[in-house]
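Comment thread on ticket #2218

A.B. wrote:
> Attaching the input chain for the structure job we discussed in standup.
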Amino acid sequence: MSRSPIVLLTGASGVLGSALLPELVGCHVIALTHRTPVPGADEQLHGDLTAPRLGLNQAAYKQLAARVDAVVHCAAITGFSSGQEATHALNQAGTAQMARLVADADAVMYHVSTAFVARTDLTRAHQGHGSGEATARPEDYLDSKRAGEEAVRASGVPAVIIRPSVVIGDAATGAISAFQGMHGIIHGLLRGLLPLVPVPAHSPIDFVPQDVVASTIAALVREGRREGEVWITAGNNALTTERALQVIGDTADELGMDAARPRMVGPDIVDRLIRPVFIANLHPRTRRRFDDMLAMTALFADGRLFPTSLGQVPGAPAELNTSELEAALRMSVAYMARAKGMTRTPAPASTASESVQVPA
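C.D. wrote:
> Ran it. Output below, let me know if you need it in another format.
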């Protein structure tokens, strides 16, 4: 009888890693941990992606390399406010370290990047706009993820580069291990803190439920895919900004919440009129919140549709249709609202904690 493949999983305590772990049925999973223990893994190994040999002594590193068949690399700094040095240290240098282990192990690498590497031209910095008082710098994150992909390609190891779009909660329940990215915008909308959204009504808002991403990655591992790029996105079926805001507003109404519907405006109007006339005189914390939102939503304003590989991976979920995306968004909105005590309906027993992180 052939043995179970041994998979080293990084980022197992994160949003994608925690969703992926139970999907790796039939695999012996070693979770590489740094601070947080990971329930459900077959083994746990304490290490540091930014240290030589992952922080292991030479004997332990050689033993690990002799055992591993595949590496699923989910670990990353996904926050836009972590700083250029820390972001590149993990997302670029850490990825290069994992590629080196894959080479030493004669294994295959499944590297989780982000679909937004295709939208680096949309950042405010790239378009020559000032960042104002924003702490969010999406250009640092995107540059680091592009550099991470290049590190994988330059290593020459067998590798699949996986590019999910914005990750929301489980399609059926909305549950997620940490609120991130789009949840922050939803929270602001539900609390009435965002009277306007600087994204044109027609712009696509591409998101995918975490279980779809996890199931697709697990299917790639089971298939033994060894090369190529896989886009886990909504593709042509991505909701428009107008429709996504409508779904969020309708869900708030169903939950008995009084959430004002925001106005959609183009970023040019924000820079020419709204920010200098209306935002400049607000409290510094409010200005900073607005500028952070402006930096993040720039990645969606007039964005091109992403390609998608859903429906093309054997054993993985099919392409999501518009109705399925709307239903998943409703579940994520409802889950977050209940978890944060914004409705009278109590949250499930296991709720997510707030995070300042963004799309994977």
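A.B. wrote:
> Thanks. Noting for the ticket: Residues 84-105 form the longest helix (22 residues).
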